[in-house]
Design the sequence.
C-alpha cells in the first residue's frame, strides 16, 4: 500500500510534541507538508494552508492543529479539495460548523475524524468495558490545573470562543461520555468568570442520568498552582469502583492498579485515522462539545475572585 | 377515524390562549386531560402529569407547555407511557435532552413533534420559497420588545436555563434557519447581562454563510418600552428583497405587501401534529436551539446598563 501523504496545518506545541512524532512513527503515513506562518524553514513548509492546497505535491490528507476558531474554514476548504481531514479537539468553535463538515465529508465520500485524544488511552477503553451495563452510584470528576503553567501568557483562552477552563475540561467530558454506562445530562452548572474574561476560569457541574440515582459531579478549575489533578472516579451499586488518573492514562479498579497496554494517545489516533481512511468512514463524536454548550445553556454566572 | 385523545401539561398563558383553542377547533383532536397544579376545577384536570398518566382515560398524546426546565422529564415519562408528544419551544433546556427524546420516540415508534410556532406562519413558508436557490446580499434581524410587557414579574427568564432574550430570539432563529437559502453559522455574538442575571437581556449577533458574502446581522433586545419590532429583512444579489414583519405574520416582497393565506400558527401546528401521528413520523428540528448554544459558545460578555 502506498503511504497516505499528509499535511499538518498549525505547528504549535501539540503538533510538534504529539502529531509529528506520531505521524513519523506510523508507516501508513508520510509527512508531505506543514503549514506555519513564520519560522519554519523546512522544504515542505507553506506559509498558509491555501498555498499548501495549491502547491503541495499529491496530498491525501491533512491534520488541523490550529486553535479552534479558524478550523472550520480550513477543514471545509481541505474537504472541498478532496482531502481526508483529522481535527484536533475541540473540532470547531460551534456545533453548526462540525455538523456542516460532517455533511460535506459524507457528500464527498471522504473521511472526517474529529479526535478526542483522551479517549485513546487504553485505560479509558478498559474502564468503559468494566462499567458497561452497571448502574452508577456516584461519579466525581476533578480536573484541576494551573492555567499559567499550561497556557502561559495566552490571551485566546479568555477571549470569546476560547473555551476557558472547558479547553481542558472537554477532555474530561470526552472520557466521561465514553465510559459512563448511559446518557449523561448536564442539570446544573455554576460558571466562574474572571473580570474582563469572556470564558470561565472554573466550573462546578452536576449531571443526571437514567443510569444512576446518585450524585454525578464535576469540578473544573484552572486556579491550582500546586500541580494538576485529572481524575474521574466512579462507583457502581454492586460495589465496584473505577478511577481513571492522570487524564485517563492510569486505571485503578477497586483501589488497585489495573495495568493496560496500548499505543498511547496520538499513535492510536493515527492508527485509527489510517483505518478510517481505508474503510472510507468518518468518526465524528459531537457529544463532548455539546456538553460544553449544555453547561452554557443551563449555567449560572459568578464573578471569579481573580483577575487575568 | 377516532379522534386523538390529548392531554395538555401546563396551563399557562400560551396554553390557554393558543393550544386549547387550536385543539378545540381541530376535529382530529379531543381534549381529554389538562394538568395544572392549582386553580383548575374542570373534571379532566389533574394536579400532576404523573396522576394524569395513571388516571386519565385512554390518552393517545400530550402537548407539553410548561417552562423549558421540566419538559424533558415529563416528555420522557409520557413517551415511556406510549404517548405521542408535542413540545412547545424551546423543546428542552439542553441539546442532550432533545437528542435523547428523539431516540426514545424512534425506538418506541411514537411521534415526537418539537414545535417552533413562528415557522407555522404562511408568510414564512412563502418567504422560504421565494429565497430558495438565491444568494443573499444582506440579512438584518431585529427582535425588540419590552420584557416587562411580555414577562411581567417573571423570575425564571433571568435564572440559569431561563434563556433570557433568547426566549423570544429563538423564534427569530427558527424563522431565519428555515428561510435562509443555505447554512447559517454564528460567527460573533455580544451578550449583555444585567447584574445578578444568569441570562442576557440583549444580544448582537453576526452570522456567516457559504450562501452569502454580505452582512448577516441580528439584534435581540428586551429593553424596548415603546412597543415591539419583530422583523427579518433579506436582500438577494439579483435585486430582490423580502421582509417578514410582526414575527413572521406578514411578508413584503420588494417593499410591497405579499398576501398569503394560512391556518395561523397554532391551528397549523395541530394540523401537522395529526399528520405526523397518522404517518408515525417525528419532526425534531434542533437548529434554533443549537444556534442559541452557538451564540453562548462564541459569545463575548458585557454588563448591561440595567438592573433587573
Sequence:
Amino acid at each position: 500500500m502506498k503511504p497516505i501523504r499528509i499535511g499538518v496545518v498549525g505547528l504549535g506545541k501539540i503538533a510538534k510534541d504529539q502529531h509529528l512524532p506520531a505521524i513519523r512513527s506510523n508507516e501508513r503515513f508520510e509527512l508531505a507538508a506543514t503549514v506555519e506562518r513564520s519560522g519554519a524553514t523546512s522544504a515542505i513548509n507553506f506559509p498558509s494552508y491555501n498555498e499548501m492546497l495549491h502547491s503541495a505535491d499529491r496530498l491525501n490528507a491533512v491534520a488541523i492543529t490550529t486553535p479552534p476558531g479558524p478550523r472550520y474554514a480550513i477543514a471545509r476548504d481541505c474537504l472541498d479539495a478532496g482531502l481526508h481531514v483529522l481535527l484536533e479537539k475541540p473540532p470547531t468553535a460551534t456545533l453548526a460548523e462540525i455538523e456542516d463538515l460532517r455533511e460535506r465529508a459524507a457528500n464527498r465520500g471522504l473521511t472526517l475524524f474529529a479526535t478526542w485524544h483522551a479517549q485513546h488511552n487504553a485505560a479509558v477503553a478498559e474502564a468503559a468495558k468494566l462499567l458497561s451495563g452497571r448502574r452508577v452510584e456516584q461519579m466525581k470528576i476533578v480536573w484541576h490545573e494551573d492555567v499559567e503553567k499550561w497556557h502561559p501568557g495566552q490571551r485566546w483562552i479568555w477571549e470569546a470562543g476560547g473555551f476557558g477552563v472547558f479547553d481542558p475540561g472537554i477532555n474530561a467530558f470526552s472520557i466521561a461520555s465514553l465510559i459512563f454506562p448511559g446518557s449523561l445530562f448536564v442539570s446544573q452548572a455554576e460558571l466562574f468568570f474572571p473580570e474582563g474574561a469572556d470564558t470561565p476560569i472554573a466550573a462546578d457541574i452536576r449531571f443526571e442520568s437514567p443510569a444512576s440515582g446518585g450524585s454525578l459531579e464535576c469540578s473544573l478549575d484552572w486556579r491550582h498552582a500546586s500541580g494538576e489533578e485529572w481524575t474521574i472516579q466512579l462507583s457502581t451499586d454492586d460495589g465496584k469502583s473505577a478511577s481513571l488518573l492522570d487524564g485517563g492514562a492510569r486505571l485503578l479498579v477497586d483501589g488497585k492498579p489495573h495495568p493496560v497496554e496500548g499505543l498511547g494517545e496520538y499513535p492510536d489516533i493515527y492508527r485509527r485515522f489510517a483505518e478510517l481512511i481505508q474503510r472510507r468512514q468518518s468518526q465524528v463524536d459531537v457529544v463532548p462539545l455539546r456538553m460544553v454548550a449544555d453547561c452554557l445553556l443551563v449555567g449560572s454566572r459568578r464573578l471569579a475572585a481573580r483577575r487575568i
